[in-house]
Amino acid sequence: MSHIRITKLFSFETGHALYGYDGKCKNVHGHSYKLSVTVIGKPINDTSNVKYGMVIDFGDLKKIVKEDIVDVFDHATVFNKNTPHVELAKELQDRGHNVMLVDYQPTSEMMVIDFAKKIKKRLPDNIKLHALKLQETDTSYAEWYACDN
Ligand SMILES: Nc1nc2c(c(=O)[nH]1)N=C([C@H](O)[C@H](O)COP(=O)(O)OP(=O)(O)OP(=O)(O)O)CN2
Ligand SMILES: [Zn+2]
Predict the structure, then answer these.
(1) E strands present in the chain
(2) pLDDT tens digits, one per residue of 114-129
(3) For a substitution probing ligand 1, which of 22, 136, 143 has the most ligand atoms within 8 Å of its CB?
(4) So what's the ipTM on this one?
(5) How far away, in angstroms, is 140 Cα from ligand 1 center?
(6) What is the DSSP code (8-state) at residue 50?
(7) Among 10, 29, 35, 103, which is 20 to 30 Å from 68 by CA?
(8) 3-state DSSP assignment of residue 135
(9) What tens digit of pLDDT does each residue of 129-140 get?
């Protein structure tokens, strides 16, 4: 049976700020992120399996990405916990805002690395993460490919 890649698209609204950056993105601002998740595997060959003909049910892939990424990042503001932004984060949290502290600079590149780690942990053994594309704006995106890593 052939290996087939299947892809599901997600979107979420997230705020961030790049501490120490030399441009406008050092300010707190937000993006309508678009995330494309591609996995690879062989379609199930067993006619008695309810998932016959599927690499992975799109719904099962959606559950993983929703639980570990979309529901966590949507309408949150992400700050690098290794910077003084941690104080701003605390103030916002104390005032009831949805803040996420991460261990990295929240660029598209670093976020896509984080997402790859999270998704890989959740996939069944027979399904491999092939690629992620994280689109920050209409003109800017970062990609993670298994073959590069
Ligand atoms: N390599 C990276 N460069 C920049 C990142 C990033 O994650 N990786 N992020 C930013 C900012 O978050 C910014 O909001 C997005 O940058 P940019 O594409 O430059 O945004 P513009 O609105 O100016 O895009 P145009 O379409 O060119 O107007 C900065 N850099
Ligand atoms: Zn930004």
Answers:
(1) 4-16, 29-41, 76-80, 99-102, 128-137, 140-145
(2) 999 999 999 999 999 9
(3) 136
(4) 0.92
(5) 6
(6) T
(7) 29
(8) strand
(9) 999 999 999 999
